[in-house]
Amino acid sequence: MPDYTYVIVGGGMTADAAAQAIHEADPVGSIGVIGAEPHPPYDRPPLSKALWKGEPEDKIWRKTVSTGAQLHLGRRIGAIDVRAHLATDDRGTKYRFTKLLLATGGTPRQLPLKTDQIIYFRTLDDYRRLRALASQSVRFCVIGGGFIGSEVAAALRMQGRDVTMLVPEAGLGARVFPAELARFLADYYRQKGVTMRLGEGMAGLDRRAGSCLVHTTTGGELVAEVLVAGLGIMPTVDLAEQAGLRVDNGVVVDEFCRTSHPDVYAAGDVANFANPALGTRLRVEHEDNANTMGRTAGLNMAGRATAYDHLPFFYSDLFDLGYEAVGDLDARLETVTDWKVPFREGVVYYLKGGRVRGVLLWNTWGQVDHARALIAERGPFQAQDLKGRLPA
Fold first, then answer.
1. Is the pTM of this model over 0.85?
2. Domain annotation for the chain: domains and CATH numbers
3. Which of 5, 69, 120, 192 has the most CB atoms lying inside 10 A of its own CB?
């Protein structure tokens, strides 16, 4: 029976960040990483960004083995016995632990048709499949106009592929961006050659002559050989539920990334944590949170008490445009736009009750820390107070 001081369930960026921190704080503690993928930990953002622009695949790999961690790949933990401090995988192997980290991430929402012509874009193997298909003259349809859908559609179009986006909202990124920016972005994608079908959701899905036939909510049809589903993820909490841990939109943790059991921690996409700056609980599915929270969890597991009070940021590349963002970006909030060049360079502030709750840095770089400081300020702010506030 493998016997580790620290067991990490999950093999992604959060797992690597935790292993690095554990090794730093407790160099003699043994670490076991159990990951469902056949690959060791790697950086996920390049799968929808840099790899499509020519960055070599070998740049994505993390150096998890440098921590001395033993990697058990292609395995899933199916049960945790918190009293006996045992985790059991899908091959029946039991792992003894002193401390355990749940870094189980999330599972893509599924479409109602089982076919290998649908790609749920999340893993390296998903990227490799889509990249191979992108070398063929086939029609692609991206379902959903959110974060991943927008990036993948741009990546495919940059390869010269025929791409249609099916977007239920009236603009691209409409749940996050102000309406006028979401409309501009949809027009921008059209100019880049993407067929945009706005205000149309998916009502049904069938097969037709070797292709996928999408029935839309407006009574229309859309035919494509490959569908890319950008429908978001659900936090993978089944293991936490089985172990009797508190779950509420993810695995609930305290400021030290501990779950409702003191020897079990959670971090990354799956963790629901309190953020002091926003005064609310969050669950964040982005790289900065994976890296920073994973590291914090690792330090705490190894006895170096460290509160997780970080407000994560996220970023995206959309053809020639790009942005960084921090805080609560919800299009339903009051927004104040401060454009240097309309829709090309500027800052969008999201306000609630006179306080800045989120900041979108549109083609504006190096301002994330200043944006965090602004969110921490009590205000109240009027629109005129924010004009010219950033870049600082």
1. yes
2. 3-107+233-301 (3.50.50.60), 110-229 (3.50.50.60), 320-386 (3.30.390.30)
3. 69
